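User: My collaborator sent over this chain with a note saying "see what the structure looks like." That's all I know about it. Can you take a look?
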Amino acid sequence: MCIETLLKIVSPASTEEKDSQAWYEQHSLFELLETQRNGPSLILYGSSFNTGSILLHSILVPVQDIENINADDLINWEGNPYDSWSCGLVWGGGKPARVEFNSPLSRIGSKTLMNGQQLVFGRSFDGLIEDQRYFEIAQFLTHAHDLHWTPERRAWCRLDKHGDVEDIIRWTEEKGCGGYGTAVCISIRREIIEMQMSATGMALIQMFDSTCVPKGFHGWGKGDDNSIKDEKRKLYYRSHIEGNNGSYFRGVQIIKPQMSAEEYGAYLQTQENQPKQYESFITQDWKNKRVAVVSCNPDSIASYFEKDSPLPFHTSPVFFKPEVLDKYKADPEKYNLDHRSISCRNSWHLQTYDVNEAGQVHTYIKSLLSR
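Assistant: Without extra context I'll predict from the sequence alone. Here is the result:
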């Protein structure tokens, strides 16, 4: 959806009057900004070009630095993902030749954002045979949340609690013809960036610069100029609108963390303390000389030392059809079948199992606790 939305913003609408007005007033841009405030993902970097162009670039900034907002200072921000650290020879200004080290945000034209942290870095290297242009994500973000670049998924990923690969930061791209109809979007799942902001006392600042012009555009004439400070939405921008001749909007949006560090911690702790669910299995309860459905909940089974307990022993055997192993054998990347044991990456481990003469797979019910 990110790519389609970016292309919609910069592509001329139909000739119907209501569509044309919505296009030059850039309704799609403000719909996108609205989804950023409440949606399931946030754009760290987005750009698109058709007859118009849009750039959306996000950085993290200490919340305390934006308590007294200077909207003009924020709007004057000049930055993009291709800004990076530099170290090399400089001279002039009445000073001798020297070497200097500069950070990505040292010369962006905004005092408010000087202490910010850039998240996306665009890089290129002609020495590469493939992917000469690529993007990197700030290591403090990928390392803190155990994210790894996965080329086949075009995403920075991690393993979930079930051992499956999940996309956390996605890089999607649409390559048009001669630059027209192109779009790039790098977006992150909201809960991850929210956790980062809560833990570090940061807010996300999104800069947007969007120009929509019709085919055959020859330059700006007279139009309506506005400067908007929307304190409720933390949205600040300048605009120029010329009817069917197009418009441009330049501004910033501030997205503060929804929870403090303590509130987010309490939320995660509540999630951790949710009651666990345990499966039940048809079990040979040899202690009570019966075949019964028994839960692998620790409260439903007993050890040898609990002599007065009527519950089945935790060494009661559970039997399965041999086909149960097919799932694990068919996916060796996710499951590891060692000698009489099975493990699922980042998730669970079955310590022991065996196969009897009848071909049945069996294990102890206590061994299923580690699933």
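A starting point for your reply to your collaborator: The chain has a mean pLDDT of 90.
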